Amino acid sequence: MSLQLTRERLRAVYAALRYFPPFSRMKLPTPERVQFNIRRTKALDGEYARWCNSDDHIIDISASRNGHWQTLSVTMAHEMIHLHQARARTETRSQHNADFQRIGKLVCRRFGWDFKQFI
Predict the structure, then answer these.
(1) pLDDT tens readout for residues 18-73
(2) Reading across the β-sheet that carries 46-50, which strands appear in turn?
(3) Which of 19, 58, 104, 111 gets the most CB atoms within 10 Å of its CB?
(4) What angle do CA 67, 87, 112 make, to 5 degrees?
(5) Which neighbouring-strand residues pair with 48?
(6) Could you give the CA distance from residue 80 to residue 77 in angstroms, rounded to a whole number?
(7) Distance CA 65, CA 61 (A)
(8) Count of CB atoms within 10 A of residue 1's CB?
(9) pTM over 0.85, yes/no
(10) Which CATH number fits domain 7-118: 3.30.2010, 3.90.1200, 1.20.1740, 1.20.950?
(11) Angle formed by the axes of helices 69-88 and 98-111, to 10°?
């Protein structure tokens, strides 16, 4: 049986991951300061965006691609790294630059995830 995604549940997953290193050291915004949306796209697992250099952060999660705890938590963690990079201004034209990969490897090691699938 697949997880039914709601904004409240996405907020809860974000909040939980925020308490674990390396996220706990990133000073990420509280869940109330992030807008969570559920999409039905099969083209991507999730997406991070923000409004024109503002502090309005948006994380979209695809219900079509995240039906289990494992995929949902991996996708949320991935988008949280993008959020961190936006705040730290370490984004580049390459979406998954060296900084993203460095942090992603830390996250995968911490949670026991396969980095090859994380990217």
Answers:
(1) 999 999 999 999 999 999 999 999 999 999 998 877 789 999 999 999 999 999 99
(2) 34-39, 57-62, 46-50
(3) 104
(4) 40
(5) 59
(6) 5
(7) 8
(8) 5
(9) yes
(10) 3.30.2010
(11) 140
